[in-house]
Task: structure prediction
Amino acid sequence: MTVLVDPPRWQAHGRLWSHVASDTSLEELHAFAARAGIPQRSFEGDHYDIPQERYAEVVAAGASEVSGTELARRLRDSGLRFRKRKGEWPLARVEDGLAGAAPTPHVLEVVASPLERLGAGASVVLARALGVPERMALVRNSTREGWGAPGGKREVTDGSARAAAVREVAEEIAVEIEQERLVAVGYQRITLPPGHGVRSWDEGDNYVQVYAVTLPSPVPLRPDGVEVLEARWLSLAEARDVAGSAAWWPLAEWWWARG
Result:
């Protein structure tokens, strides 16, 4: 493995910053960051940001000094580059992160974003109800283990991921939501290598759009009893206990933290 660091030349928040990346493995990059005391919050999807005062310390810990251009080239060539648009924030990148739900191999990336993925083939709705404590609506599906947020695949008649989200919430828990009330909070990108597309999964990029909606109070949840066996309003702590390992969960934490 080679961990790379470029000179502190990137200005932000009144300081100069360097990038720390690997051209081999994100797992080993995370391990290096842990040994060097670089906080997890500094991770940006494919690299860590460090302030200039930590540059010498990171080099002493074993990082190889390269130019910014060289670091970018080696990161791109490694296939570890995290693709995002302006205004988006990478939250997670996991090899085979949807075990049992998507063909293997694949790469799961979770991105916080106010920008919709209009071609998304599925959608998830994070429904929050105001109160003390605030609560989140979760469902127990008959075909999937554990608890999750309402949502599902987009159908031809939906026309959009937003329309599919509204339909799924109505079908699964009998809650009617206007499309305009949905707020885009991010998406999951599931990327399959060439030749590994199967059934509803295409080789290349597949998207699940994640929306959020805030309701003034916990309205009654009426699961259909066929696809959804149970539905509950749970506090954030309770929801984390039962759904914290879900692929979309980092987006729930990100959205909740922003009020």
